Amino acid sequence: MAEDELVIQRLEKLQRLKNCNINPYPTKFLSTTTAEKIHKEKPEGNVALGGRILTIRKMGKATFVTVKDATAKIQLYIKQDIVGIDNYNLFELFDIGDFIGVEGTVFKTRTSETTIKAEKFQLLSKSLKSLPEKWHGLKDVETRYRQRYLDLISNDDVAEIFKKRAKIISSIRNYLDGNGFIEVETPVMQSIPGGAAAKPFITHHNALDIDLYLRIAPELYLKRLIVGGLERVYELGRTFRNEGISIRHNPEFTILEVYQGYADYNDMMALCKNIIQEAANSIGVSKIFIEEKELTTETLKHGEVPKNNNSVLPCFSGKKEIDLFGDWKRLSIESAFTEAGINFADIFSEDNLKKLGQEFQIENYQNIPARKIFDHLFDKLVKPKLTEPTFVVDWPKFLCPLAKSKPERPEIAERFELYIAGEELANAYSELNDPVEQKKRFEEQVKEREKGDDEAEFLDDDYVKALEYGMPPTGGLGIGIDRLVILLLGQESIKDVILFPLLKPVKL
Q1: How confident is the model at residue 318, as a pLDDT?
Q2: 238 bridge partner residues
Q3: pLDDT at residue number 506
């Protein structure tokens, strides 16, 4: 039957319900338990449960119904002799997809299936559209992302992903709160975007008649709080960058930024490791396995379900084991480039960088900023080798306008990036707290912007003014939450760990 015909049929049932003085959308239903608890506890006495109908199997004067709440599926037994002939006939107006509330007692059928014997039932919400593919599996990827509600109804493993994502985020907050950090909120709309090399989204405030930018990072506001005496702060929230979309990039994403007074990037390495290990612990993952960029939480054959509670996701067999609780390496970026056959001194010259761009076939190397040539060289020559957890340390200063230079090597910044399984997960600095040097760096960034680098930092005079009041030595850390979830849950794309990823609009 065509979808339009089904909707018409269900609308007719809806009207028949109303004609029987039944409200098809009541205000409330009080569930006294969950399907999961019923399966575990086999309660005596009456229970009340609300859920969505997944199957209906009529057998004369009795009907078996499968319903699902947020925790599990359970069977209902609706018998004419118990609920009465009028109510039993009324059930003819119920469909798969409807929400039902039931009251009754729990028993086991002859096949040992835990079941609620209904004494009363009521319609809680009438569904006008049928569930996809008879509810047992929405496979089309595009539909799954665009209509996440159908994805969650149809695929239990998807709901599990987002439950585990919530556990990961809670564990991070709990760890930081327990170590003296306070969570704060900083502006999402900013008059000057800063704190990262990225292109911002622009909006306009009518009352003030000014352009504003969705933040590309909360960094500069968080460091203002360090100036103000809040010595340990963090923010875990949404950030926006007007960049391309890929399996690792969504224009709207979640980031954790942490700042600690009287600390440096070495302290941030320890903090970063602890946060990620706490997150892994929260969902029972200690190792991941990779094979051709496919990440899993178990060494299982495709489609096999793990025997423990680490994951209920479809998995792939893996060849390379990564122990998140083993040794984490530390590698200087100079050593990494030297091992790749590049004279590290060459990267400080724009002309030499362009020659390297030509030699290593970097696309459009003649027209992109030197910073981007360096990034492409790193991505091509170094990044794929960074399988084990590795802190890549001591980056060129020209890449780090907000980081403090090493005292013995002023051309090098005290910065690290963390890589696991060839993906960047974190970025950290010993924060620059010299206001004179910071203003000079901003002015250099303005020149880069004038030369065409639209991701260079803006000059933020108010931030410089804040530094002029004095900021203690400070370590700062940023962790990409979406990428961390991808890693820990063995997913392929950022779209799989964001409930509503940005997609090109289409007519549904």
Answers
A1: 44
A2: 254
A3: 80
Q: How far apart are CA 261 and CA 476, in angstroms?
A: 9
Look at residue 143 in the predicted model and tell me its pLDDT: 83
Residues near 445 by Cβ (< 8 Å), separated by ≥ 6?
Answer: 401, 456, 457, 458, 459
Three-state DSSP class for residue 375: helix
Helical H segments across 21-155, by residue range: 35-41, 80-83, 85-90, 141-146, 148-154
Q: Block means of pLDDT (10 residues each) for the chain, length 508 residues?
A: 87 96 96 97 96 95 97 97 96 97 97 97 96 63 88 92 98 98 97 92 96 96 98 97 91 97 98 98 93 46 34 44 96 96 94 94 92 94 95 97 97 98 96 98 93 90 98 98 96 94 83
Under 8 Å CB-to-CB from 247, ≥6 apart: which residues?
Answer: 492, 493, 494, 495
Can you tell me the distance from the alpha carbon of 475 to that of 267, in angstroms, rounded to the nearest whole number? 7
Task: Tell me what pLDDT residue 301 has.
Answer: 31
User: How many whole angstroms separate alpha carbon 116 and alpha carbon 134?
Assistant: 23
- From CA 403, how far away is CA 397, in angstroms rounded? 8
CA distance 299 to 320: 10
Amino acid at residue number 426:
A
Residue found under tokens 């690290």: 416
Quote the pTM value: 0.90
- Other beta carbons less than 10 A from residue 113's beta carbon: 12
Instruction: Indicate the helix (H) or strand (E) that contains 225.
Output: helix 219-227
Q: 402, 340 in Cβ contact below 8 A?
A: no
**Among 101, 132, 139, residue whose Cα is nearest residue 118:** 101
For strand 73-79 and strand 99-108, is the pairing parallel, antiparallel, or unpaired?
unpaired
Q: Are strands 99-108 and 46-59 parallel, antiparallel or unpaired?
A: antiparallel
Side-chain-side CA neighbours of residue 471 (13 Å): 34
DSSP bridge pairs for 424 = 419
- Asked if 259 and 267 count as a contact pair (C-beta separation under 8 A), the reply is no
Q: How far apart are CA 398 and CA 386, in angstroms?
A: 23
Compute the Cα dihedral for 435, 331, 270, 172 and give only its sign. positive
Q: What is the pLDDT of residues 313-365, one digit of tens each?
A: 333 344 689 999 999 999 999 999 999 999 999 999 999 999 999 999 999 99
Element (H, E) at 234: strand 232-240
- Per-residue model confidence as pLDDT tens digits over 11-60: 999 999 999 999 999 999 999 999 999 999 999 999 999 999 999 999 99
* 24 closest CA partner among 125, 127, 129, 130: 125
What the block records as the tokens of 279 is 């997150």
Picking from 258, 257, 255, the residue whose alpha carbon sits closest to that of residue 231 is 258
Distance CA 327, CA 319 (A): 19
Structural contact between residues 194 and 224, judged by C-beta atoms closer than 8 angstroms:
no
